[in-house]
Every structure is written in structure tokens, then in C-alpha cells.
Amino acid sequence: ENIERTLVLIKPDGVRRGLTGEILRRIEAKGYALAALTLRSADDELLAAHYAEHEGKPFYAPLVEFMKSGPVVAAVVEGHRVIEGFRSLAGATDPTGALPGTIRGDLGRDWGLKVQQNLVHGSDSPESAVREIGLWFPGS
Ligand code: DAT
Ligand code: MG
Questions:
Q1: Which of 17, 25, 63, 80 is deepest in the core (most CB within 10 A)?
Q2: What value of ipTM does the predicted structure carry?
Q3: Active site located where (predicted)?
């Protein structure tokens, strides 16, 4: 009945600001389940694969540098239509435009910062979810 898995990342800004618990709380409060959870530092190889679709874009290099600036929480989150549902919880990419009630809308900052510092990543399709879960949780 449409139980999916998605890859969620709490980016270095979220971990640094102590928002890991708050973000996981929102995921669990929605009724989604944590199927895997880890804290790790990402290297160039992992990030190049993860963000392959953005290679060549002007924000690619700063995005990768930012993602290496501290540890990241990676989670496999499971639930009914969770791929779409987590992106809805996360809100729009730009924290300024993200609606209140969303993770990025309530907690995201962009004053003096960059759009890339938007707290979370969520897979955008079933194909992306399978690919990204394989990258962050090899052997899962
Ligand atoms: P999302 O994370 O909402 O799926 P995306 O896949 O289009 O967004 O982009 C990946 C990340 O790259 C995003 O979380 C933040 C950064 N980014 C996207 N567009 C950007 C832009 N115009 N300027 C700076 N960073 C950007
Ligand atoms: Mg994306």
C-alpha cells in the first residue's frame, strides 16, 4: 500500500545548530519510521555521486564544500508516500520562500548565508531514493 523509503539528510547547518532532534521529531510525529540512522562526514566521492544531477551548475562547488563543512545525519525514512511527504515537510528549497510549518520555513535561515544551507535533503523520486540510499547505506 505504497510504503516507500526515502533518503533524508540533515545537512551540516542542521547538525551544527543542534536541530537534529527537532527535525527527527517532525519526521516521527508525522508517523514515518526510521529504518536506518547514522552520523557521518561526507567525502568528495560520495557527494559527487549524490549531487551528480547538479554537476556543472554555478552552485555545485559551494554546495559540495558546504556539505563537507561538518558531519551530516543520514537516515532512511519509511512510510506511506514518504518521498513526496518528506519533501512537503521540508518545504521549498529557498528557506525564505518556504512556507511556515515546514522545516525550512520554520527553521531555515538565509540571511548572509546561501540557499544551500537549507537544513535538509530528501530524495525527489523513487528512482532517486533507491540510488541515494545505496550511496549512503551501501549494503542495505
Ligand atoms: P532540493 O534540495 O530542494 O531538492 P535541488 O535538488 O534543486 O533542491 O538542489 C540541491 C541543493 O542545492 C539545494 O538543497 C540547495 C542547493 N541549491 C539549489 N539551487 C540553488 C541555487 N539557485 N543557489 C544556491 N544553491 C542552490
Ligand atoms: Mg534535490
A1: 63
A2: 0.96
A3: 121
